[in-house]
Every structure is written in C-alpha cells, then in structure tokens.
Amino acid sequence: MIRVQEKPEPKDFHAKVRVKGQQYFLSKGIDPQHPLPEGVKLNPYWRDCLDDLYYAYDGVCAYLAIYFERAAGAATVDHFIAKSSNPALAYEWSNYRLACSMMNTRKNDYDDVLDPFLIEDGWFHLDFLSGSVFPNPNLSDDEKKLVSDTISRLHLDNEENRGIRIRHFQYYLDQSIDQDHLRKTSPFVWLEAQRQELL
What we know:
Blueprint: H1 13-28, H2 50-56, E1 75-79, E2 96-100, H3 101-107, E3 124-126, E4 133-135, H4 141-154, H5 159-173, H6 179-185, H7 187-195
Antiparallel strand pairs: 1-2, 3-4
Helix pairs in contact: 6-7
C-alpha cells in the first residue's frame, strides 16, 4: 500500500448520490446515526459514481496499489467505514476508496485495515527478490502491527500478489515498459524501486 491523496467530490455527486441516499433513509425510516438493523440493506446509489471514482483515482486499487482496467468490471466502491456500522457515511464521497473486487471482498466490514488516505509512504516495504511486502522496520511497534494486520487481512503477501510485483518490475528491467509506465501501473513497486535506488 501507498498513501492515496483524496480527490475532490464530483460536482454532481450531491444530487446523484447523497440526496438520493438521504431520501432513501427517510422513506425506509432508517436512522443513519445508528448501526443498521440485522438484515437491512441500503440502496447502492454509490454505484452511480463508480466511473467518477475510477477515473479520479486513475484506475489504481487503493489497497493493492496496482492499475486495473475498468472494462474488466472489477472496479468497486469500498466504504472504508463500513455501511453497517455507520450508515451516515454510506453516501459520502470522502468514505469511498477505489478497490478491485478481490480487495473489497477481503476487507469486507473489518476495521483492522489501514486507511490509504492516512498512511505514509514507506510504511510498507518490498523485497524485490521475492515480491514480499512487510512493515518498515523503523516503524514503532504499534505501527508495525497495524501494517502487519493490514497485510494479513488483505492477503497482500500471498503468492499471487508477490508474483505480480516481481513481474511488473521485471517488465521494467527488460525495458518492456519505462519508468513512467511502471509508476502509473504499479505505483507501489515504482515507489519502492525509487526508494531503494533501483531505477
């Protein structure tokens, strides 16, 4: 993971998502200031801003830090603060993180994942020989645990994700892609390669 700079709310977001959500709360008698009752689902008006979210964040998954194509249908709106625990944020742009479907599924409603908007670059380190990701050893013990918990929850260090990182950097080494392309498609790999003076 890398730090993600929050993007401004789209101009039509209020009418397209927030107002509809507020009206839905009223029509269903839902108090958004309290957790959702068991079995209650919200109308997914947030999907109406999925294209805006995708293009605002350049198609890069906030958790995996890898570009993915919109046409593949894998883009999702992740509610960083779960809808079930805080419905008031269900229709708020500031609570949305662009996520590929796999990362969104793994994060689910868990609250032990670091917020990409709040972390600092360099909290997650990369071993370029194995593709493995691990906490920056210079972090405090508490920060290391938060990073480790996030890696564990999202399976960021599984074999598949290690392989993706190795391949992306190998493309750069083989000169199949240049540094700018690496930065756009695999920003975590690019940032770590830059930090380790491998570019």
